[in-house]
Amino acid sequence: MSKANLMEQTKRVFPWLIMILMSSVTFVGILSELMPSGVLPLMMADLNISEVQTGNLVGYYAIASAIFAIPLISLTMQFNRKLLLMILLGGFAVSNIIAGLVHDYTIIIILRVIGGICAGVMWPMIAAYGMRLVDTKDHGKAIAVIMAGTTLGISIGMPIMTSIGNDYGWRAEFIGLGGVIAVIALISFFALPSISGEKLSKGASPFALLKIPEVLIILLLTLLGVVAHYGVYVYITSLVNEMQLSGGVESALLFFGIGSLISVLLAIKFTDKHLRLLTISMFGLLIISMVVFLAFGRSSGMGHFAFFLWGLSFGPLVTLLQAAVSRQVETAKDVATSVQSSVFNLSIMIASSAAGLLLGIYSPMSVVYLAIALSIPGIIISFFAKKALG
């Protein structure tokens, strides 16, 4: 059987094992980005740095991802997809392991920037890589399975990694994650199919994409959805303390994680056929969960239920928006998803800053009002965006 025929046969049968392996890449990718946030006090004490400096270990990572995603995706379009992924996983592994070994803050910042650059290329390319391995009708399913790693990383991976950091030190956490990434890279080397790169045409360039009205609508939905969700998520501890939630932030994250996992499974099944309905539901559930926080958050059980509803809304966020933007182009889907990914990362920074300003002036519940205020136009735009989400 020829290589082309084998690839076509693979496309007809959804390659679950390959997609799950790709999902493990996004799992360690999100952990690599967010890990310092779970062990801030430990890193502050060990490196003798301030809380702001420690927070910058996440901030610089996100900035590097946002800035370098579009230019580097464009420059690497002709690279073999498997080879490029091996290079990126190598960058993740080395930057985390060395960061766990050195004691100089400046060097650690440089290593975090390197990790951020790798992430800026990885997020859009791995979704496009996966889509090229399946039939067009399964593009949404492929993105949903691959990006499920992000949700699992946030809801399950982060608590585990934070526990490891607290028990064995933040350095063991970083080195351990680097080792896991190296193992995933080794498995990927033998298991993932080799896919050639594509030529970047003028019609599929980032600037050409920004001239497409549907792409601009999706980018606007990305801004609204990400700022609404992450404005609350970044300060989830403050919200939990304000509500005096029984079980604390651990119980909040548990119910949030359960909701996220359920919605990811729904996204895997329905994204290809019901993208617009799911996007409307995502914003709708976010509004409902935030209203429950405001009205019944202090009531026994209702606060936990609100976190569950919020998790249902949060789970498919990345999947829906990447699936939507990838539908707008026939080729060079990496470029389309890189534009969306850059806006996603910039939106996280905006969310953190805007919510921080609100918390400095008002109570933690102010971020809940922010989420509702942004979700209302989000649900309206999604309802009328029949062409962009159809």
Description:
By secondary structure, the chain is mainly alpha-helical. It folds into two domains: 3-191, MFS general substrate transporter like domains (Growth Hormone, Chain: A, Up-down Bundle), CATH 1.20.1250.20; 202-389, Growth Hormone, Chain: A, CATH 1.20.1250. Helix content is 81%, strand content 0%. The protein has 18 helices and no strands. The protein has helices at 3-12, 16-38, 40-47, 51-75, 81-99, 105-131, 139-168, 170-191, 206-209, 213-233, 236-243, 248-270, 275-296, 302-314, 317-326, 333-361, 366-384, 386-389. The two termini are 38 Å apart.
How do the helices and strands line up, and which of them pair or pack?
Blueprint: H1 3-12, H2 16-38, H3 40-47, H4 51-75, H5 81-99, H6 105-131, H7 139-168, H8 170-191, H9 206-209, H10 213-233, H11 236-243, H12 248-270, H13 275-296, H14 302-314, H15 317-326, H16 333-361, H17 366-384, H18 386-389
